[in-house]
Amino acid sequence: METTSHTGARAVDGYLLAPFPWYGLDEAFTGPRWLMQVGAAADGTVEHGSIGHGDEPSVRADAERERERFAVVVTVAASPVRRSGDGTGVLEATSVSSAAWLAGVGLLTFTWPSQMDHTLRDDWLDQQTETAWVLADDLGGEDWTTLTLPVDGVPTPFHYRESEFGWVLAGSTQSGAHLGAYGRGMSAYGLGFSVVKDIAAYDGQ
């Protein structure tokens, strides 16, 4: 299986610091895999991160972009409401909605209309990001359907929605982590997820 990293030397370092397992597509997917980035709290604790599969998406001309085939899996640590590292506030608990929002915003990163003026792009992204949050906060709403996919071989329900830009799904694992995913050109219906056995193998070194 091909594993590549396009985010620079030792891109895997942040992933190795995570106190939770990472998820990716299962072994049925035999294409390239690549690290994206991790998100950390103010105290440096890794809270979430993404692993890409297939073509590395980019902001290209619309015709080229339509030929891209990729799926990105977002792992979000399960965290209860907790005090911030400096003791001055409370950090919000993570949930399936957290994974849905991260996946929705991730898809937007690569889907803004290429012919759009850059001054309009920021307004468009702000509007679409707000929409992604509203949708993620209403997983029981009519914009979402239920899709059952295997996670480590266990049938698992996911919230699923499609848009003109691609698809987004979100659910929770038996290990307690929340999973989000987004993609384009690859059907979500045939996907399966599993724990990444050796994230260090994704380092390009």
From TrEMBL:
The organism's place on the tree of life at top rank: Bacteria
This protein's name: Uncharacterized protein
Organism the protein comes from: Streptomyces monticola
